[in-house]
Amino acid sequence: MLNVLVAAVTLFSSVVTPAGWVPPPLPADKIVIDVVTINGTGCRPGTAAISVSPDNTAFTVTYSEYTAQVGVGAKPTDLRKNCQLNLYVHVPQGFTYGIAGTDYRGFASLAAGATGLERANYYFQGNSPTSYVSHNLKGPFEDNWQFTDNIEVGAIVYKPCGEDRNFNINTELRAGVGSSDPKKTTSFVTMDSTDGSIKTTYHFSWKNCPKPKN
Predict the structure, then answer these.
(1) Cis peptide before 92, with omega less than 30 degrees from 0?
(2) Across residues 170-176, what is the average pLDDT?
(3) Number of Cβ within a 10 Å radius of residue 3
(4) Is 81:172 a contact under the CB 8 Å cutoff?
(5) What pTM was estimated for this model as a whole?
(6) Residue 114, burial from CB neighbour count under 10 angstroms (0-12, 13-18, 19+)
(7) Contact between residue 166 and residue 26 where contact means Cβ atoms under 8 Å apart
(8) Mean of the pLDDT values across residues 71-90?
(9) InterPro entries from the entry (predicted)?
(10) For residue 24, is pLDDT > 80?
């Protein structure tokens, strides 16, 4: 049975909730997310699926053609793959949302000396993108991997109440030859999933919006 590499990286120091802070109740209505556009060398249209958890606490992205590779059988353009998703989240009235944390999962097969990279950022339409957060892998490695990024409660960016703004996600995978022999080995990093077991999970942080003034 494969072990899972887990690396927890906390953005903006550590995950801390202010004293007395109480999260708002979760929206009762079912959350629906539409894929407005999908672009990138790692995700042709139709190769990324979105699913919202039944309790409205998170949504997942599952890819079916997202692999970066180098070495035997790989083309020069295969060493870097990226995906840009533009999503419209149908938010229930009286609520807005931000992203409290993200779990990235995948698989890598890296020869001794080879390297792998996963990095991502996201932002609301009209806002500045968050800084890219990168995670590195080093060969020899052949296993599942998982990286978790969490955001401090006070640093979560929320969609402005009452405004329609799409949510943009940028991800990237890279495979590097390093000191390995590309004529004898193939190394790759992937977020592909044929059975839905490999997916990226974005955790919602919900907030109540003030009622409109009459």
Answers:
(1) no
(2) 97
(3) 8
(4) yes
(5) 0.85
(6) buried
(7) no
(8) 96
(9) DUF4360
(10) no
Contact between residue 101 and residue 134 where contact means Cβ atoms under 8 Å apart: no
DSSP result, the chain: ---EEEEEEEESSS--PPTT--PPPPPSSPPEEEEEEEESTT--TTSEEEEE-TTSSEEEEEESS-EEEEETT--GGGGEEEEEEEEEEEPPTTEEEEEEEEEEEEEEEE-TT-EEEEEEEEEETTSPPPPPEEEEEESSEEEEEEEEEEE-GGG--BPPTT----EEEEEEEEEE-TTS-TTT-EEEEE-B-SSS-S-EEEEEEEEEPPPPP-
The Cα–Cα gap between 15 and 203 comes to: 13
5 pLDDT band (50/70/90 cuts)?
very low
What are the angstrom distances between the C-alpha of 176 and each of 9, 54, 102, 106?
22, 39, 25, 17
192 Cβ partners below 8 Å, 6+ apart?
63, 64, 65, 66, 67, 106, 107, 198
pLDDT value of position 15: 38
pLDDT band at 148 (very low <50, low <70, confident <90, very high): very high
